């Protein structure tokens, strides 16, 4: 097995707390489910893709993944994304995966073209190496490809990109950094919602936000300043 793509998702209930200035708890849960569906739909439509496994301990997420025909790696400890991916990486190695790619569940604008670009950035001649895709703000890490699958440990969080870049350099293996707008837009705060809504509408997540009249709510509500929108008097 050449590659396993790992998509960590803790659950929908209580998801996306940093969106609370703009969305209530039920809306945040619904948006998290819609974003996961958008991401899984892209993988489902990607011809000749590697194997995909959703890493979760949540029954609703498990059902969503299985509805697309994807494998599940159980997150039994539910100790956070870093621990979940460490365990999933160990399982992938045990299954014989030569490499792993980690993609978050909150990048609804991801495309198969971008995903293929990540795979292609590590030439087949390089038996060891990595590819990193930073978040749009340059702080987080929104995609990591490692070959071998456990080339270096991953540590996710708000400022994970620089540590991952250092770990890749310390490995002594070739490493590439790609700037990819779809993968780069992870939806974590109200400003990300505004960025998502500025893009052409093509995802379930965008349609859901529009059905809630979110542009109008953001323009007139308390999140306007955080979004850079003009305040209303």
Any overview of this molecule?
- By secondary structure, the protein is α/β, with parallel strands linked by helices.
- The chain has a single domain, classed as Spore Coat Polysaccharide Biosynthesis Protein SpsA, Chain A (Alpha-Beta Complex).
- Helices cover 40% and strands 15% of the residues.
- Helix 2 links the parallel strand 2 and strand 3.
- Helix 1 runs antiparallel to helix 8.
- The protein is globular.
- The termini are far apart.
What number of domains?
1
- What is the spatial order of strands in the main beta sheet? 3-2-1-4-6-5-7
The main β sheet shows up as:
7 strands, mixed
Radius of gyration (Å): 18 Å
Structural class: alpha/beta
Order of helices and strands: EHEHEHEHEEHEHHHHH
What is the β-strand count? 7
Fourth-level CATH superfamily: Spore Coat Polysaccharide Biosynthesis Protein SpsA, Chain A
Span between N and C termini? 60 Å
């Amino acid at each position: 097995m050449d590659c396993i793509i790992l998509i960590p998702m803790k659950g929908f209930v209580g998801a996306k707390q940093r969106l609370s200035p703009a969305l209530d708890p039920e809306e945040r849960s619904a948006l998290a489910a819609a974003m996961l569906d958008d991401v899984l739909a892209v993988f489902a439509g990607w011809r000749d893709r590697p194997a995909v496994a959703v890493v979760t301990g949540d029954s609703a997420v498990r059902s969503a993944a299985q509805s697309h025909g994807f494998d599940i790696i159980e997150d039994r400890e539910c100790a956070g994304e870093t621990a979940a991916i460490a365990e999933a990486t160990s399982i992938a190695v045990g299954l014989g995966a030569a490499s792993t790619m980690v993609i978050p569940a909150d990048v609804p604008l991801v495309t198969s073209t971008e995903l293929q670009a990540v795979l292609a950035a590590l030439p087949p001649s390089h038996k060891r190496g990595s590819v990193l895709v930073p978040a749009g703000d340059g702080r987080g890490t929104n995609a990591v490809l490692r070959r071998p699958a456990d080339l270096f440990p991953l540590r996710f969080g708000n400022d994970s990109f620089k540590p991952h870049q250092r770990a890749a350099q310390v490995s002594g293996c070739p490493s590439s950094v790609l700037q990819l707008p779809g993968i780069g837009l992870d939806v974590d705060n109200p400003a990300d919602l505004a960025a998502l809504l500025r893009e052409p509408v093509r995802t379930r997540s965008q349609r859901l936000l529009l059905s809630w009249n979110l542009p109008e709510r953001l323009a007139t509500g308390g999140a306007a300043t955080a979004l850079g929108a003009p305040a209303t008097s």
